């Protein structure tokens, strides 16, 4: 699969490395932007307040499936008129969109392959993005768990605050598994 990653930080860079090891071709775009026109999937992994400028610097996004891994920390809000960054992303690209990879701790990416069972990766978004979300979650070492359609993206963006609070509250960096009892 051809994947364009917008953002070279911990999340974008970390996932790009995992996907390359899984055999995917990954193009990494930074602040200078670039073209995503040949991508099968696009990962948006920039600070939450940089979504508008990041998307403006990339061509070839029309109709693309975009996986939005951004978070809204502090006083950062989604662009005016949108309840979530993911819903703004869909309005710009017009393609299937998913909020995903934003409730996992990037510092643990290299340890995921060593877990006894696959940790969960929450996602919400368009049904048309499901196949890509599930495949790329699997290839990064996670099991995708759907929270709902894209209207749940704002809830998921808020959940990232709880993940940070739990880690900072004493547990430290962690993974999570959402499963039925028979799967544990």
UniProtKB/TrEMBL annotation:
Q: What is this protein called?
A: Pyrroline-5-carboxylate reductase catalytic N-terminal domain-containing protein
Taxonomic lineage per UniProt?
Bacteria, Bacillati, Actinomycetota, Actinomycetes, Micromonosporales
